[in-house]
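**Backbone shape codes:**
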Amino acid sequence: MFIIVFVLFYIVQFLSENLAGNDTYLYIKLADIIKNEGLIREFPWLSAAVINENFMGLHFLYYILLIPFTFLGSLVIGAKIASIFFLSLMIAVFYAVLKNLKLKFRYVWILLLLASSTYFLTRMNFARPLSFSVIFTLLIFFSLVKKNNLLLFAASFLFVWAHGSFPLSILLAFIFFFVNYIFKKELYYKSVLFSLGGVILANLINPFFPNNLNYFSIYYLNPTPYFLTSQIAEWQPIGLDDLLLSDATILIIPFIILSLIYVFSLVIGFINKEKKLSVMPRRSLSSEPACPVGRDSDGKSGKAIFLAGVPRRRLQRGEDKEILIIISFLFLTSITFFIGTLLQGRFIDYWVPFSVMFIAFYFEFIYFDFAKSDKIKRALEKIKFPKFFPKEDAKMALICFVFIILAISIYNKASFVSQGYSHDSSKNIEETALWLKENTPKKSVVFNVNWGDFSKLFFYDSDNYYILGLDPKFLYLSSPEKYWLYDNIGKGIVCDKEICDEGNNNGKRSIKDIIKTDFHADFVYVPTDYEDFDYTNLINIMDNDPSFEKVFKNEGGDVWRIK
């Protein structure tokens, strides 16, 4: 499985020489710096940001694991191979979880995962620790359902060092605790304690301690204003219509259908007078064959309950309750991530794999309980197939149809992902950054008007420093006034507020004075190849101000030196 996925996405990645996205350039560059200079505790490359002196490697473990890939020729090639490796590893872990939990149609569910969402597949192909974080959530899920507390502790611990989404380990533990209590009346507190213990210990025994705690207190305890979140694409909501009609149609339809069936079955079960109904299927996770549908374990006839087919008298069996807990755990987790995706698109990283697992578990257990039941068999036997199209051919045709649909979806999504690489404008920024590297004094401060350009500038020119990158909140937390000065300078305005009057509302200070005095910058870089950003006013001001000298120009942007 690992090799198949690796080959598939190797082809996708190397359709272009570029890396897709902006932040993708950051991680491999940091890995290279750590390899050559050791652990870094400051981040001078963002001279005005709050992380300048409070840097903590939020993805430290990922940086370390990237170091071997920095030896593969160029850093771009290393980043591409690394992204393929971790994506393939994530798919392999997903497959291993399905196999360990004894699901039968594992390859179908892998195909559904790959065919599920263009946005998900695009993000998993980024040279960022996104697929890496999914691996940890899968390991945490597996450790919870198997009640392997040592694995849960280790995965929670390492998750802290791997990715900023580590609080999800505690969330999953609480959901599992809740499900256990609801269906088994068991206070399985160990799930929460081991997860929480791993998270706390990893933050205390941390290479960046106490900077990591300072970072969390500064970043997470200060609410992010909407005008900041609106600048980051992955923080934007994904509309239900987009998921349903374009991005994740092949996934969301069965997800919604099975979710509604689950809820309806659960309601029916709880309102039953005997309160002995269950939405769980009868097949156990053990290696022993399940009892025939509609019969109790002693072989006597029993009345199968609504939908799941579990006889009332089998409810006391521990195996059945464990299956119920797994399905309910997956349902609540996938619903939680689904709501998160509707609020912020980045949660699609977790919604897709967990919704596929929910679909896989629930569908298989329904299938094995009902499609194999005597009533269903008798009903199917009554169906007459024409001689030229016998029953076995019909089954094979159905299987081929499903695989063809999934294969076409995977091909379309992979083609769309590959287009993101070919439309990248990295070449222009590369030329600019290399010019800055070769023609400016080291540690010069470059006023990068568009903070999204930082990662690429830093990748090609880490000799110089910049103003803002990665997240606009880093500058806002340092100084709201300085953030608005930075933001408004891009519009050709000198103003330290969100809402500005026309003209200059900071007295007689000039743009040159602000850039030179407040931001201590020696050069200004203005991109000109963005359709969504208009820097015409600023460019006109600098062109007509003798304090600025244009020293470099290409198709992607201009560089001015401040005299």
Remarks:
- Strands lie at 445-448, 465-466, 523-527, 548-553, 557-562.
- The first strand starts at residue 445 and ends at 448.
